[in-house]
Amino acid sequence: MKLGRYELTLEPRPALPPFHAVLTAVVAILLALAFSSVLFLSAETNIFTAYRAVFSYAFFNSHGLLATVHRSIFLLFCTYAFLVPLRAGLWNIGLPGQVYAGGLAGFAVPFVLGAPQVRALPPDLLIVLMMVAAATAGAAVGGFAGVLRARFQVNEILVTMMLNSIIFWLVAYMIKEGGPFMSATGEGESFGLPVPLHAPLLLGVPFTALLALGAAVLLDPLFAKTALGYRIRAFGESPAAARYGGIIPMALSLVVFLLGGAFAGLAGYHYFAAVPGVYKIPGNYGYYGDLGFYGIICALIARGSSLGAVPIVVLFAGLSLGARFAQGELRLPFGVDYALLGLLMITFVASHVLYRFRFAWRRIPPEALPHVSAELPQE
Amino acid sequence: MWELLARSLEASTIFLFAALGELISQRAGVLNVGLEGLMLFGGTAAFITAQTTSSYPLGLLAGLAIGGFLGLAHGFFCITLRGDQVVSGMGLWILSFGLTTYLGNPYTGPLGLERVPRFFGLSPFYPLGVMLVATAWFLLFRTSHGLAIRSVGENPGAAEASGIPVAVIRYLCVTSGGILAGLSGATYTLSYNPVWNYNFLMGWGFVSLALVFFSMWNPWILLAGASLFGIMWQLSLSPELVLPGVLSRYVWRTVPFAITIPILCVISTPWFRTRWGLAKPEALGRPYAKE
């Protein structure tokens, strides 16, 4: 674009210093918050009252803070479920499906064993079994998309999305209208877990927190320092070049989707079987699947860094919870948390441009400008 | 039986409009995976406008306008900024999913207008869909503009060299794709099922996206595929008409999605690709930078 003697262009930039990457992420988040204040405005509420309600519930209220922690663990698992395939250039948007699969598999353990067995076996063993089942189911669902991607070059976005719908309806089948997992008392939700199978708590937080934080610490070195991490990154940068370098696309797609799916399965286990006060697959399980999409944003804004995702996850967990609380408190319309999700996504997409390009503002040398006669026209 | 067929054909127009828009956009080399988002936003805008103004034409117009605007936004990101088309498409989808849930929620419930008039039980949108397919086919394969669109999707560099304005063509195609997606959403909320509910589409958009791949980028095959899926979708909603009492109704709901996966696998095999799939636009999904 030309403006007089100056020219404004978009120039690609080869690499982005980490400081700029963090800055762009912060700006994207702040912009999304600014946009969502338009929503609060339209609901005729004072913005500061609204944000104070959101933050004070999420972070400065003992009940809300605990809920934020539970949700953060869930979102961390979802974030890693998306992040690992993303590093290999693949989009795992099957988070909801894998979360449901994890929940179903976890509940299948006590269901299949039956009440007498559950009483006879040590609860710790059963809890480990449930967790392994959840991770395996998530991994199987993810791995299915990974195999199809590698073997037939089937678009993984389409396959994972189809799997989301399929498993969504399977859960409905299992827990509603006389399905196998339906509770004896209530319509539309699963049986509750027996008390010994409730996940052990450490300081009021389920032990799954340790797994999530362990993944946060371990994933970054995995990508940076190990051969597998190198392969994943190489495949993500250029699948063709990686293949010439001896990386087997089939194995690699499978590995990242298995790993990602396992994380999402654990997220399902965590929310349905480990969060105090839940311990069942509720009728509104779809909401937890939708929440999984926050994992996509967190991984994208964190630019694939597992440790970098932690503060972002905690912030969004708090915001989405606080927004729900505020909408009840201030009588806002339903879905502020969904709106925030959408706005975050679009500010991220906009900031994505700033990662890759910069605005260059330079003066055009006079000889390049079209010659304009300075003399008065002669008679 | 006729009622079921008419209803199925109406369902298939929803797939058809969205997929036809996507087909045109993909023919010009731009992939929009956020199709479902455009449909959600278009449908919600149409519903809210129709309800507040009690006018179907205004609602339809709002749906088209929002769809076109989002298509244009996708174009700006992919064509002008040369961004990643998947990132932008996913962004549009999640944006629409989130915002429509918030904006549409006060309108949850039935539309409350008299139903769109039908001819022998058939919605007027179906003949419109067939006409649009014929028009799109004629435009793409029988006119010089169509040749320009296809060449932009195959080899934008060569197209530019022969004097075709690549960016302009891509913008036009992406925007008209968006308008058609808006039309598809509006058909859903105004005529097919005039009850607003959050995330009312639940996968229609992604099935439409898959249909474009099934169609081998040919509007007539797309029409056949959309009709087939419309019938299948309607049957999955009321399985008791065919097999009463077999399996839970929830299990039947998975069928259209489950069928999509093996079809996707078959059309992705090297055998199929070399035999039939050569129609895939060569430059699909790749940003084009003018030399």
TrEMBL record, chain A:
Assigned GO CC terms: plasma membrane
UniProt KW Ribonucleoprotein keyword: no
InterPro entries the UniProt entry points to: ABC_transp_permease
Top-rank lineage group of the source organism: Bacteria
Membrane-crossing residue ranges in chain numbering: 21-43, 63-83, 90-113, 125-145, 157-175, 201-223, 244-273, 285-302, 309-326, 338-355
Molecular function as annotated in GO: transmembrane transporter activity
Major site of localization recorded for this protein: membrane
Record key words, sorted: Cell membrane, Membrane, Transmembrane, Transmembrane helix
UniProt topology in membrane: Multi-pass membrane protein
Places the protein is found: Cell membrane
Record-linked PANTHER family: ABC TRANSPORTER, PERMEASE PROTEIN, GUANOSINE ABC TRANSPORTER PERMEASE PROTEIN NUPP
Name this polypeptide is given: ABC transporter permease
Organism listed in the record: Candidatus Segetimicrobium genomatis
Automatic annotation (TrEMBL), chain B:
UniProt keyword Secreted present: no
Keyword flag Transmembrane helix: yes
Domain of life assignment: Bacteria
Pfam family, one: BPD_transp_2
Membrane-related topology note: Multi-pass membrane protein
Keywords: Cell membrane, Membrane, Transmembrane, Transmembrane helix
InterPro entries: ABC_transp_permease (IPR001851)
Family matches, as CDD domains: TM_PBP1_transp_TpRbsC_like
Transmembrane segments: 6-24, 31-50, 56-79, 86-104, 124-141, 196-214, 221-238, 250-272
GO MF entries: transmembrane transporter activity
Protein name: ABC transporter permease
Cell location: Cell membrane
Any one annotated GO CC term: plasma membrane
